[in-house]
């Protein structure tokens, strides 16, 4: 073995043409090698390379000296084997974001209406002999109108463009912020490698294949590697495999080390064999689809080669739902070319499962659209029928050929009036209100430590009914600290001052802690002024070092005096030993051993204990039992981990003990102290949890810790309240209760458990995912649950993705967790989640406020336009005026109402949940109530206004006459009423004081005043384009007075109790339980609901009506049961299938990924032969 580190002669390797450059091994060989585990890996290394040294030789690296660090060599290695960097998903270009924003249903409806209206405004058929054809009622529109006709279409398009640009810009800036955060985090990670025989720390991204890395307890491996030398090395590979048991690594049994796994015990050196995208984490992240280009490569690859599994498309970061499913049938293979094209296209269009609000808004837009379509069709029909009867019936004219163009012109005019009614009916401001509200909230949430990655998560959070939170780091500080101690026969409830303890005892305690702990564990000064000191390494050891500092001493000088090389023997901590011991050789030839470990284990081995004078006294079993009862149990009940610190002297006379007889060595110890360590609850958490409970949100704690600690922390946080019959389960018990004999999860069983469950201890990532999925899919209880989840580990990825809102930890979280999350908590703090709930509810309320205002305008405008058109053959509100009311005011109103700041009172009501309608009964009462007031006023003015104001009537004026005062007053009153109603719309739960907090919202005030000023300008100086005649001051005062009447009327409406108005319908429901079953049959359930699907297919929803699909669904529903047996598994990937047919475990992309990551025992569906 002398040539252990000798380089492979370069001639050989180059001669073998298939090898990469000068190295004797290709990336593919290394990649294949890394897929092997344990014994297979060992035999494969022996077959192909002889031993690990053989690989080192081929990679031209020395196991002892490491790489030379020559920049040319490093670059070459990066070129051949890749960089240790997982490229983030290519950010979407601005144009892609614009295209995505254009997919909104309401916008599509508007675009269609605008284009029709534009086209018609330019259509001027040649005029015939008008006299002969009869002057039909209402006449052709006057010049002003015809010239201004195009303004309407153009203005609608303009509003659409603004909405799209605002949306796209928001997404883009949000993405940029997120990248900034990512880059900052990435630069901070460093790792220890050996180069030129020197141990140095380099940024993780600079590690190359062939580097020799030092690994130790507590490390997160940044790349895949092969073990060269290890001492007692154990890894936690649960992040990749889901197996919670620690895996022992050794050269003989299992030398494969995988990136993303944690070193739980021991230390060693590894040779890096795969980095970046070729490492195990890289491969998983590629599967999660965070590298788009990888996907496209895959798409191409899968055409050329490989089993169907290669064709699986992963779900990309924004939750683009592409099922990970093998293509099943032969036809599928043929249609593959088409399939690929489709998939690539589909990427840009699909969204994450619809957020609760989006779903409700889409449904509402469709409902409003239907109503508008109906009204406009009715208007056109009535006008045409009236025209026909009047012209051909009453005037008894014949249809002459030369009159055809003129009649067509009439019909076109009627059609334009119809389109005007439709445009007025559709709430254009709605998409803008949603966007503004979300964008405003996201910006402000950044200040509250919430980095929102998916806009809709913000509003979904307002509907959350359950939060499943981690314990460590979220509810607690993730800083182990010593809070109680038993030293020298005294139980101190807080850390004692050093002068109250015997100095000899203090010395021995300080020495024991300083030497008998990993030297890599340190306490560093805080990064920011006034911050907490940073804990590096093992958290428990940090707590003990913290105790040293609390006793006003320092551990560093002792470590410098006794460097690691001087430690005679170390028994490292492991799960069976549950203790760590370090032996030092004394000057006189004797030995001293320091031990520390779990108190129940170490105390059993103690035969003496130091008393108050610092002298050892006998410690009998009965003393021990008393100590357990009086000291250890009370500490455990407070949720503390108890650690016993002890020592033992071996006199020189007795000679050197046999260090291998561990049981004999670890006995006859002398106990120095017992300390109670806890991860303290963050001081602000109990209040935050109480707020959540008041707000109707159930907080559940899911932790890997033991059940006693979990229960104690849960009680301190207020998750468990005394006298309540809530469940605390361990993972094992939880699984026994929810799985049937075959080991499958049954929804019915889960439904019995989760409503009462508050703490799930010793849980695996799979348990977390099962719980989250079970709560989301559950249909018990009055409303369906909306679940938020917090997670920090790679293994939390699936649960974070499955949850309605996934919170990842910004500080402690791994990249995989952040990638799968919707919101990142930049301070890892539970209180920030409560802030997110507040903002989410605020968004929801803002949109409801806006809807209440907008729909009142719409109802009134549609009815006025409709009746006006039918009675006077012309709309009293001209198209341009309608547009001013409809577009400009609504856009401004959306700005005013969507930027209301949240108040604490939002947390005093229950969450709305998935099924609660957007427009509640109270809101419906307000909308209809105000509409009644406005309609009475407008019709009174329209038909009797001229008498009241003593002016000329504006009705039936001849064509092309100048604008009348009469109609200007009608228009002005209409606008004034909207303005004052905007103030009413600030409250949606029937509160009386509509001015409350108005001064806190400067945007609102400026919008109301600004609109008022603009209205004055339009009326006084608008002239012909706006069909306005300047008004006198007394007329203005009357208009304002009628407007103020809105506020008084609002008080009157508030006095009517809502529960008496049973006849009022709510609108904008979420998806109801019955419809969940209907949905199963539609192929892309997770993508879009019926409304949008229909739209996407033909994008002409309005001319189809939705009734057809509903009828079809009813029919299909009847056949569902028989159909289910015949269906191919592909169409079974609906998220809800499982709730109805538990016997099918659908292989949704979620579970396919878990099977990748956790190797869990999900039975996949059999391949169907169809």
From TrEMBL:
Listed under GO biological process in this entry are: regulation of cytosolic calcium ion concentration
Q: Which GO terms describe its molecular function?
A: ATP binding; ATP hydrolysis activity; calmodulin binding; metal ion binding; P-type calcium transporter activity; PDZ domain binding
Where is this protein localized, as stated in its record? Cell membrane; Membrane
Reaction catalyzed: Ca(2+)(in) + ATP + H2O = Ca(2+)(out) + ADP + phosphate + H(+)
Which SMART domains did the record assign? Cation_ATPase_N (SM00831)
* Xref: InterPro entries: ATP_Ca_trans_C, ATPase_P-typ_cation-transptr_C, ATPase_P-typ_cation-transptr_N, ATPase_P-typ_cyto_dom_N, ATPase_P-typ_P_site, ATPase_P-typ_TM_dom_sf, ATPase_P-typ_transduc_dom_A_sf, ATPase_P-type_domA
The protein's matches in Pfam families, at most eight in alphabetical order, are given as: ATP_Ca_trans_C (PF12424), Cation_ATPase (PF13246), Cation_ATPase_C (PF00689), Cation_ATPase_N (PF00690), E1-E2_ATPase (PF00122), Hydrolase_3 (PF08282)
Q: Which UniProt keywords apply?
A: ATP-binding, Calcium, Calcium transport, Calmodulin-binding, Cell membrane, Ion transport, Magnesium, Membrane, Metal-binding, Nucleotide-binding, Phosphoprotein, Translocase, Transmembrane, Transmembrane helix, Transport
Presence of keyword Hydrolase: no
- Which Gene Ontology CC terms are recorded? glutamatergic synapse; plasma membrane
Top-rank taxon: Eukaryota
Q: Which residues cross the membrane?
A: 97-120, 150-169, 371-389, 414-440, 927-945, 965-983, 1003-1023
The record's annotation in NCBIfam families points to: ATPase-IIB_Ca, ATPase_P-type
Q: Into which family does the record put it?
A: Belongs to the cation transport ATPase (P-type) (TC 3.A.3) family. Type IIB subfamily.
Stated name of the protein = Calcium-transporting ATPase
Provenance organism? Kryptolebias marmoratus (Mangrove killifish)
């Amino acid at each position: 073995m002398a040539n252990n580190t000798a380089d492979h002669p370069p001639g050989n390797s180059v001669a073998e043409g298939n090898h990469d450059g000068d190295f004797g091994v290709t990336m593919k060989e290394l990649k294949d090698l890394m897929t092997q585990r344990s014994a297979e890996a060992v035999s494969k290394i022996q077959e192909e390379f002889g031993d690990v040294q053989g690989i080192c030789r081929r990679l031209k690296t020395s196991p002892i000296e490491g790489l030379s660090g020559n920049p040319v060599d490093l670059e070459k290695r990066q070129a051949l084997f890749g960089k240790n960097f997982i490229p983030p998903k290519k950010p979407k270009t601005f144009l892609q974001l614009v295209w995505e924003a254009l997919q909104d249903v309401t916008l599509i409806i508007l675009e269609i209406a605008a284009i029709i209206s534009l086209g018609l405004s330019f259509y001027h058929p040649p005029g015939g002999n008008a006299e002969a054809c009869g002057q039909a009622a209402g006449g052709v529109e006057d010049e002003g109108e015809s010239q201004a006709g195009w303004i309407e279409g153009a203005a609608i398009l303009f509003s659409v463009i603004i909405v799209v640009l605002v949306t796209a810009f928001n997404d883009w800036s949000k993405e940029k912020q997120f990248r900034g955060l990512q880059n900052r985090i990435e630069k901070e990670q460093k790792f220890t490698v050996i180069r030129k025989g020197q141990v140095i720390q380099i940024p993780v991204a600079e590690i190359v294949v062939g580097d020799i890395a030092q690994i130790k307890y507590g490390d997160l491996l940044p790349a895949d590697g092969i073990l060269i030398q290890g001492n007692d090395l154990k890894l936690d590979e649960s992040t990749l495999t889901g197996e919670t048991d620690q895996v022992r690594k050794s050269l003989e049994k299992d030398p494969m080390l995988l990136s993303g796994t944690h070193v739980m015990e021991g230390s060693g050196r590894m040779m890096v064999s795969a980095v970046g995208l070729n490492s195990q984490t890289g491969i998983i992240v590629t599967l999660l689809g965070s590298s788009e280009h990888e996907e496209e490569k895959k798409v191409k690859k899968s055409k050329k080669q490989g089993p169907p599994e290669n064709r699986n498309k992963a779900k990309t970061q924004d939750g683009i739902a592409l099922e990970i499913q093998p293509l099943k049938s032969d036809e599928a293979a043929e249609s593959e070319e088409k399939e690929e094209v489709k998939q690539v296209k589909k990427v840009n269009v699909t969204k994450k499962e619809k957020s609760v609000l989006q779903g409700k808004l889409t449904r509402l837009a469709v409902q409003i659209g239907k109503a508008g379509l109906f009204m406009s069709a009715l208007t056109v029909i009535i006008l045409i029928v009236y025209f026909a009867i009047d012209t051909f019936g009453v005037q008894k004219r014949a249809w002459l050929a030369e009159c055809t163009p003129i009649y067509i012109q009439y019909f076109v005019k009627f059609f334009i009036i119809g389109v005007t009614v439709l445009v007025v009916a559709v709430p254009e401001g709605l998409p803008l209100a949603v966007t503004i509200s979300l964008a405003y909230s996201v910006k402000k949430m950044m200040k509250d430590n919430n980095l929102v990655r998916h806009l809709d998560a913000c509003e979904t959070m307002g509907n959350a009914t359950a939060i499943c939170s981690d314990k460590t780091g979220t509810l607690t500080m993730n800083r182990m600290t010593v809070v109680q101690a038993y030293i020298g026969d005294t139980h101190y409830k807080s850390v004692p001052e050093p002068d109250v303890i015997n100095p000899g005892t203090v010395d021995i305690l300080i020495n024991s802690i300083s030497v008998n702990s990993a030297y890599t564990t340190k306490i560093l000064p805080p990064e920011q002024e006034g911050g907490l000191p940073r804990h590096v390494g093992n958290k428990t050891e940090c707590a003990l070092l913290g105790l040293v500092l609390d006793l006003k001493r320092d551990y560093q000088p002792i470590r410098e005096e006794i460097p690691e090389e001087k430690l005679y023997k170390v028994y490292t901590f492991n799960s069976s030993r549950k203790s760590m011991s370090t032996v030092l050789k004394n000057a006189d030839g004797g030995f001293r051993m320091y031990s520390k470990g779990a108190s129940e284990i170490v105390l059993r081995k103690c035969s003496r204990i130091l008393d108050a004078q610092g002298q050892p006294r006998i410690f009998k079993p009965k003393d021990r039992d008393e100590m357990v009862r009086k000291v250890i149990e009370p500490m455990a009940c407070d949720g503390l981990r108890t650690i016993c610190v002890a020592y033992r002297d071996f006199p020189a006379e007795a000679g050197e003990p046999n260090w291998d007889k561990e049981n004999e060595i670890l006995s006859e110890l002398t106990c120095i102290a017992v300390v109670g360590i806890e991860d303290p609850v963050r001081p602000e958490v109990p209040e935050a949890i109480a707020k959540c409970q008041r707000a109707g949100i159930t907080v559940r704690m899911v932790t890997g810790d033991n059940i006693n600690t979990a229960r104690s922390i849960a009680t301190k946080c207020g998750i468990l309240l005394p006298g309540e019959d809530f469940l605390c389960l361990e993972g094992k018990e939880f699984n026994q209760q929810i799985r049937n004999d075959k080991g499958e999860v049954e929804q019915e069983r889960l439904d019995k458990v989760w409503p009462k469950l508050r703490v799930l201890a010793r849980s695996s990532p799979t348990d977390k995912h099962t719980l989250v999925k079970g709560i989301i899919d559950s249909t018990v209880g009055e409303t369906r649950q909306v679940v938020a989840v917090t997670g920090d580990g790679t293994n939390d990825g699936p649960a974070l993705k499955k949850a309605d809102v996934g919170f990842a930890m910004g500080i402690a979280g791994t990249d995989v967790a952040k990638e799968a999350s919707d919101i990142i908590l930049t301070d890892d703090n539970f209180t920030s989640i409560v802030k997110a709930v507040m903002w989410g509810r605020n968004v929801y309320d803002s949109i409801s406020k806006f809807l209440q205002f907008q729909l009142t305008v719409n109802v009134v405008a549609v009815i006025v336009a409709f009746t006006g058109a039918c009675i006077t053959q012309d709309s009293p509100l001209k198209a341009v005026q309608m547009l001013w009311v409809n577009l400009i005011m609504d856009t401004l109103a959306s700005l005013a109402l969507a930027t209301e700041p949240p108040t604490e009172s939002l947390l005093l009501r229950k969450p709305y949940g998935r099924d609660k309608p957007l427009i509640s009964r109270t809101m419906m009462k307000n909308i209809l109530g105000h509409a009644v007031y406005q309609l009475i006023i407008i019709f009174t003015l329209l038909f009797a206004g001229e008498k009241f104001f003593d002016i000329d009537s504006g009705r039936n004026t001849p064509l092309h006459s100048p604008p009348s005062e009469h109609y200007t007053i009608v228009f002005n009153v209409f606008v004034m009423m909207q303005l004052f109603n905007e103030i009413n719309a600030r409250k949606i739960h029937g509160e009386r004081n509509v001015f409350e907090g108005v001064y806190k919202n400067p945007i609102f005030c400026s919008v109301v005043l600004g609109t008022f000023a603009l209205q004055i300008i339009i009326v006084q100086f608008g002239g012909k384009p706006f069909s306005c005649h300047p008004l006198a001051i007394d007329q203005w005062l009357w208009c304002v007075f009628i407007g103020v009447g809105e506020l008084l009327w609002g008080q009157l409406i508030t006095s009517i109790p809502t529960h008496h108005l049973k006849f009022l319908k709510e609108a904008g429901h979420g998806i109801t339980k019955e419809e969940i079953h209907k949905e199963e049959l539609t192929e892309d359930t997770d993508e879009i609901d019926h409304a949008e699907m229909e739209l996407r297919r033909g994008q002409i929803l309005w001319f189809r009506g939705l009734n057809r699909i509903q009828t079809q669904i009813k029919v299909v529903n009847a056949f569902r049961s028989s159909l289910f047996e015949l269906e191919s598994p592909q169409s079974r990937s609906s998220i809800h299938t499982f709730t109805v047919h538990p016997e099918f475990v659908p292989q949704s992309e979620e579970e396919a990924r878990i099977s990748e990551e956790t190797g869990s025992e999900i039975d996949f569906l059999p391949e169907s032969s169809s």
